[in-house]
Protein 1
Amino acid sequence: MGSTDRKVNFNAGPGLLPREVIEEVRENLLSLGSSGVGVMEHSHRGKEFVAVLEAAEAGCRDLLGLNDEWAVLFLSGGASTQFYMAPMNFLNGGTANYLDTGDWSAKAIKEAQRFGTVHIAASSKAEKYVRIPSGPLDEAPGAVYTHFTSNNTIYGTQWRQEPEAKSPLICDASSDIMSRPVALDKYAMIYAGAQKNLGPAGVTLVVVRKDFAASGRKDIPTMLRYTTHIEKESCFNTPPCLPIYVMALVFKWLAKKGGLEGIEKHNEAKAKVLYDCLDGSAFWTTPVEKASRSLMNVVWRLPSEELEKKLVADASAAGFHGIKGHRNVGGLRASIYNAMELADVERFVAFLKSWEKANG
Amino acid sequence: MGSTDRKVNFNAGPGLLPREVIEEVRENLLSLGSSGVGVMEHSHRGKEFVAVLEAAEAGCRDLLGLNDEWAVLFLSGGASTQFYMAPMNFLNGGTANYLDTGDWSAKAIKEAQRFGTVHIAASSKAEKYVRIPSGPLDEAPGAVYTHFTSNNTIYGTQWRQEPEAKSPLICDASSDIMSRPVALDKYAMIYAGAQKNLGPAGVTLVVVRKDFAASGRKDIPTMLRYTTHIEKESCFNTPPCLPIYVMALVFKWLAKKGGLEGIEKHNEAKAKVLYDCLDGSAFWTTPVEKASRSLMNVVWRLPSEELEKKLVADASAAGFHGIKGHRNVGGLRASIYNAMELADVERFVAFLKSWEKANG
């Protein structure tokens, strides 16, 4: 049976969750509160789970500052479902701007192309995605929306602020959702798979302007219309109840951390500690342009792949889990999502420094 | 915080889970085995979760007796996603038979109509769904498949055996999957939302013949092709990891119960105890034709709605949760899925008998 000793988890996703959240889940698995029925076993239409759903929605609204013009949806199928669901609803033979900043952007582009014209308004593909495109976008006239990936887990880049576009933004924020405040007025929709900053895999948060959702096509499957889920308050069919419950607890934890302003400071402090270490010696190489660095996924290289492999193994033995880079790019990656503690990053940096002495 | 005292949970879905399964989940939330990383926090591509996925697939294959001609997929979006995904893949302007035995069949029919011709080959709608259609189906010539709902949670009916059709069966088995053996050779595909017999809400089991999957359309979103998920072994994108883990544990539990033959005997014994009680007094009315009675969802009525309301409240106070009938039909319903213990049904029957004496 499992122990309660935990490694420092740098996984890129699914990623770590706050320990206090997991402990609260444990306490409610056999019986949600004093209901006598476990949190996985309640009817999604019963008062106990309805309260969970309401808490999740209220937590999300408070953190992002969403008014009634916005809907909060708890869907399934991951961001990969949004890659086709958004253009299926909104593109409808028209044109949309897509900003190509990595593999996930490229996947969104591929799925959108079935539903209309995808105009690449910015791309860093030619530079192997080591930076976020700068300068004004090359926008298509009359674009219905502008789609971008706010943070790129594989390449370790992040938009420091929202791109400036004439059409409303649709954002895949899977890997930096709620890691910092957002300029809501620029967006029509933000979506995020939960498994990095919000909860376990299995639920996708979608916040969407209700008027934008209403502009979507009606002649598509009922499950694929945003308006269906708005009308049915995420209960058109049985939603992923446990992942939503965990997300509600994460929202509560985030509020205690000072909301998005508080967590942003926390995230900046963690990233600084790690980037400072990597910048402090020529032994480590950071491929990403400094202005494009992600505060969520820190990527770096060593002089050889052998050394990289050794670092992954030695780190694991020392209790630091999941620092192998994505298989598409190699190298090393430490994902330091919201739930990562500053003290754990500091311990990791101390480990890196001593490892450099031994192996550099 | 939650206690560990549990009510007898007759919810129609999400439904109860075996206590030993929940306890094993609890033990692995902070650390899966000795890995130091909780089961919700492992990468879906890491060896620990890959082992979970393999155990889930192997468990499913053993229980259903699936050979290599079959694929086992762990998808998301519930049965409601299969309502459109199956016809989107396979109907393609052709004709399919649909058997209309209740609200869920009707929903599947509605979504299929976007993709071709839906031929109603049997229906009990005119009889308000109180029985399963008998006699030969009125099949459309050249039908691509025949879709049916094996068990109808709302009306409390169940196909005693598979319908005889010339085209391969596609079955929504959400509410009786793995409650008894199936005649696999009649099927092209079986799908089931997990939240009744297999696990928590958030994962959908799909078993599909590989040759049938390969016949599906290619010009649809990548996520909506069964072949995508077969090629990527349910990891085209991040799957719902925790629900899959719970399902793997449920499969292990089912194997210990004697597999599908064992659980069928268990289910027959439970249903007999409850139906015998309801048949034993004119105080209780069972609307469903006897030959069509569900072994999973037992529905009945009392002489008045006031008495029904009182029974729901008194049962709840006595520790019997969730016996209110579906809002579309009213009355009473006890869902006695795989994880329901015979002793709990016997205790409930004793309660019903004493309640009848006091209120009859």
Note: Residues 259-279 of chain B form the longest helix (21 residues).
Protein 2
Amino acid sequence: MNADWLNVPAASLNDAARRAAEERQGQLTKPPGALGRLESVAIRLAAMQGSSQPRIDRVRISVFAADHGVAAEGVSAFPQSVTVEMVRNFARGGAAISVLARELGATLEVMNLGTVNDPGPLDGVLQQRLGPGTANFTIDSAMSEEQLVRALHIGRHSAERARLADGQLYIGGEMGIGNTTSAAALACALLEAPAESLAGPGTGLDVAGVGRKAEVIRRALARHNGSLADPLEALRRLGGFEIAALTGSYIACAQMGLPVLVDGFIATVAALAAVRRRPDAGEWFFYSHASAEPGHARMLAALEAHPLLDLGMRLGEGSGAAVTVPLLRLACALHNGMATFAEAGVSGKS
Amino acid sequence: MNADWLNVPAASLNDAARRAAEERQGQLTKPPGALGRLESVAIRLAAMQGSSQPRIDRVRISVFAADHGVAAEGVSAFPQSVTVEMVRNFARGGAAISVLARELGATLEVMNLGTVNDPGPLDGVLQQRLGPGTANFTIDSAMSEEQLVRALHIGRHSAERARLADGQLYIGGEMGIGNTTSAAALACALLEAPAESLAGPGTGLDVAGVGRKAEVIRRALARHNGSLADPLEALRRLGGFEIAALTGSYIACAQMGLPVLVDGFIATVAALAAVRRRPDAGEWFFYSHASAEPGHARMLAALEAHPLLDLGMRLGEGSGAAVTVPLLRLACALHNGMATFAEAGVSGKS
């Protein structure tokens, strides 16, 4: 197994479909631009789908769960056992993303990439265990090269399943106690930013806890200093199985031409790693929401990304992306369903 | 007919239901506060509906259309004939709000309160004609006292129909060429703000056009100077039939305990007039979106309102509120459908 597939370019957007969609938006019975970002969403989706009638009927959500060795540094407000407990909760339908998937009629796929406690087979959970969580990256690399390559593959295969099921939108979610620390450390490496600019409260640290988390990240950056220039190597040393899987899934989606709706803090660092590895992949990404996690704004700025929602959410699981799906659907419905000035017999601008 | 009904207080929110909802949010399988504003939306709806399981299944949208005498001052990018043309478009299903109502499964009611050209009976349009539009308020009062009282009543009756149909959320929309000028002038009066702080491009004026619009508003404010302290008198002198109907509908909703989702620039000035007349009504209002019309921010600040969406929309018709409905529905679904820590066997905070 290797990661040569990452060299495949992203699919091209359909420029003719984009131009046709832009033209149609100008003919619909509204002042030009009056639907704001719903217009640009519909135009981008038309270009992605190569269609004059973009649609987001079939949404695929893949949630990747894994544990983090760095949790031993006391960087989370919750005990590590919560990762596997939440895997059960996803599968039984009680978690936020489970509820949202049902409401949206989306297909939800849950993958356990390696929790500290192996729960054995669980109904509704794909077991794709790479180990009992990552290593503590203040001491060692989080992953071996083989684990990284396998995690990227797991993400790729999830994207391929979405494509095979004629999915029209891919959402990746994550769960892993300690993973805002991993995401923040990786973002520091990719953005060459100081630890205190990316360390935040995560699931609910107090000020002292955030200070400890920044200190842990500083130690990790010092430990891996000089080996973080390559985005995949930074991902291997500081990331998590679920973050690497997200990166792999996003790149594969872009290669297959499947639009991606990126969730919040953790998912955005995976998107950042994806774009650093394959800059052309970014054309396929929508950014769903601005997380309440303070460092998210810095990542979004680096990506020149402008999320559609800002509701102060900070849950992960893909939940912020899921909440954004109706906006994409309504953007399509307006684009496809509104009458033109000519059809409606409405006068244009004076 | 009189407006004494405006003296009836707004309904009370259910504090026990609010406390129970707050407690439940703290028990759901997520870090406290991690769903951000979706949590406070669910809690407010629980208090409004007096229910532990708030729901927004039945949405009622009422669109009020009317013409404006001030259009004669050249304050719109579109000809005045568009108002009645759009009324037909609403009824035939081709307008943005028609598409959105269909997608949301919402009931859409269209009312013609007075267009310059009387189209006669139209399928799907309630004719409630108060005259061929308002008078030009740079010269005269926009409405007579009788027209104001009748417009408020029309709004009230629309809210009552929504309530009788067991509606769970009320959205008021508007259409009227020239109505951003009317709304801006009224906001200037209610906020004691200068014309240039509220005049904006509306449907698409250029810089010179916005300057002309501000000049028209300045003339109107000078013409009515000394008579604008009472909010209903300001509404009569500077408002539109559709704006007055929105104000009446919002107050009636608050009196009956029906939650309101306020749309953008025009709807917000109607809400501002409602709150100035009945401060207790404001507890029943959600603000849906920040309009691209620059003066909207000033109104929202005065109302201490924080809209849920900011998508650069500036269409009116109730469209921004309609686009926000799925967020309220998902907030309810999460509140009602997520498992608690105890139910899911998930550990709490360390």
Note: The longest helix of chain A spans residues 145-164.
